């Protein structure tokens, strides 16, 4: 696959590169080693350290050398384990709370430039006039070409009230647009909602953060105040990269029977072998109150469709997998990313202002399905557009990442991005550039329209593409085959029994 496609679709919410980690913050700063240390290898490492100090062409700072050694050691494990320096650790904690200092834009990468997916309403970028589709070509005096998305994002973030000048290439503008923007603290609402038509609502979770369950509860209460006889709801998890585990449990718990199993985890440590239930203690930020208690009982039975795509990862896959296992909702869209591992963030002594983000477990749906490197297979496959799925099927998946964990229950279930020759890829990219940027939840949202058709019992235009589906025995399993026979999907029978 060409280098251009590998960058397209890497979306960062409000200047945070779209990590697919489901994060648990571990209160334990240090654990005693239970195994003997490999003394010979450690001596060799000390010898190399000494050799660099004595023979390298320039003097190297001890702290920098050791920090880089730690970083390389952790990064060698898998794509999601990482050493977090002081700045990265602070940014991670802020991101889970739904706030950060930056410009306020969702971004991706296209042709080596930062592409604006959408400015966040009332953010510095929004007020400065940045538009969806803008290509950022220069950050102050630094050309964007040659930078990774993460490097560009770091340059756009900074301290409050500091300024940055963006050079922008805009369609239909002959000359570059130059804007100077002042960074500010941005607070992101992770939940969006609206009544799309009488009796039907759209609820979107863009990222699972600490306030997500509270935000969702308020949005659902407002929907029921407007539509007390709600006939159906579309839960939109497309391009949701994941986030904190309690947020995922709370979102699933809103729609599942009380005390249902939502997800389980398994790893080396006894503490990593856990089962999480639809109970207040597993999702409520305040142990004395339940944000879901304000919701009407009808929320447990209202017909549902959950929209996912190849950008739905980690925590969003937990929610989709749980609702699918209980047959509580029809899962619609395209196969998800396949991020089925748990990252624990462990603060390091002595100051505890640095940390290690370490993969400590795999997670499983209530029926014991491992999503790692496979993802969630929709009950009904529906493309993003009437004429196909655009670039979604070509985006990198978990199985494409170097050193990814395998699916421990079915090693034949791994799903990678579709292979395509360079020429075909170039044609597809050129065709996609002509499309108007898709706004999820708008009247032009084809998948949302099909979800509403499903809720109403109307015909659904399903995808012609066949999902990569295998069951636990490794045999081909295509549950949507019969639904494609007449290009129509039957209404889903709602079963809320445990």
UniProtKB/TrEMBL annotation:
GO molecular function: endopeptidase activity; serine-type peptidase activity
UniProt KW Ligase keyword: no
Gene3D superfamilies: 2-enoyl-CoA Hydratase, Chain A, domain 1, 2.30.42.10, 3.30.750.44
GO biological process: proteolysis; signal transduction
Keyword Protease part of the UniProt annotation: yes
Alphabetized CDD domains for the sequence: cpPDZ_CPP-like, Peptidase_S41_CPP
Source species, domain of life: Bacteria
Any one cellular-component term (Gene Ontology): outer membrane-bounded periplasmic space
PDZ domain sequence ranges: 89-157
Protein keywords: Hydrolase, Protease, Serine protease
Protein name per Swiss-Prot or TrEMBL: Peptidase S41
């Amino acid at each position: 696959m060409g280098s251009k496609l590998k960058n397209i679709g890497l979306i960062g919410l409000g200047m945070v590169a779209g990590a697919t980690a489901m994060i648990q913050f571990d209160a334990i700063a240090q654990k005693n080693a239970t195994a003997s240390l490999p003394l010979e290898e450690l001596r060799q490492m000390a010898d190399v350290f000494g050799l660099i100090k004595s023979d390298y062409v320039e003097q190297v700072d001890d702290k920098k050398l050791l920090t880089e050694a730690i970083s390389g050691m952790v990064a060698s494990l898998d794509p999601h384990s990482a050493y977090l320096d002081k700045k990265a650790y602070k940014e991670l904690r802020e991101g889970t709370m739904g706030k950060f200092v930056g410009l306020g834009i969702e971004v991706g990468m296209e042709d080596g430039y930062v592409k604006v997916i959408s400015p966040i309403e009332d953010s510095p970028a929004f007020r400065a006039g940045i538009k969806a589709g803008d290509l950022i070509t220069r950050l102050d005096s630094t050309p964007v070409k040659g930078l990774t998305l993460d490097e560009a994002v770091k340059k756009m973030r900074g301290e409050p009230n500091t300024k940055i000048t963006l050079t922008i290439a805009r369609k239909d503008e002959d000359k570059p647009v130059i804007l100077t923007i002042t960074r500010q603290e941005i607070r992101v609402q992770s939940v969006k909602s609206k009544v799309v038509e009488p009796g039907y609502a759209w609820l979107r979770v863009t990222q699972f953060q600490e306030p997500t369950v509270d935000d969702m509860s308020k949005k659902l209460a407002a929907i029921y105040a407007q539509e007390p006889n709600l006939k159906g709801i579309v839960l939109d998890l497309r391009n949701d990269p994941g986030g904190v585990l309690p947020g995922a449990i709370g979102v699933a718990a809103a729609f599942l029977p009380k005390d249902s199993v939502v997800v389980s985890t398994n790893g080396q440590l006894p503490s990593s072998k856990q089962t999480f239930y639809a109970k207040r203690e597993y999702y409520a930020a305040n142990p004395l109150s339940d944000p879901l208690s304000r919701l009407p009982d009808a929320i447990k039975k209202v017909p549902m469709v959950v929209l996912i795509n190849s950008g739905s990862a980690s925590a969003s896959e937990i929610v989709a997998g749980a609702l699918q296992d209980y047959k509580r909702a029809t899962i619609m869209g395209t196969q998800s990313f396949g991020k089925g591992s748990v990252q624990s963030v462990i603060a390091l002594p002595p100051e505890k202002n640095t940390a290690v983000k370490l993969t400590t477990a795999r997670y499983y749906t209530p029926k014991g399905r491992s999503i790692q490197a496979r993802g969630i297979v929709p009950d009904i496959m529906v493309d993003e557009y009437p004429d196909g799925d655009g670039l979604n099927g070509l985006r990198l998946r978990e199985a494409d990442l170097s050193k990814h964990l395998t699916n421990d229950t079915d090693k034949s279930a791994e799903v990678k991005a579709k292979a395509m020759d360079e020429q075909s890829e170039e044609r597809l990219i050129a065709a996609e550039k002509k499309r108007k940027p898709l706004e999820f939840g708008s009247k032009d949202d084809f998948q949302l329209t099909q979800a509403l058709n499903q809720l109403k019992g109307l015909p659904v235009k399903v995808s012609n593409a066949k999902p990569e589906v295998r069951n636990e025995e490794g045999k081909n399993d295509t549950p949507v085959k019969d639904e494609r026979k007449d290009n129509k999907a039957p209404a889903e029978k709602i079963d809320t029994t445990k």
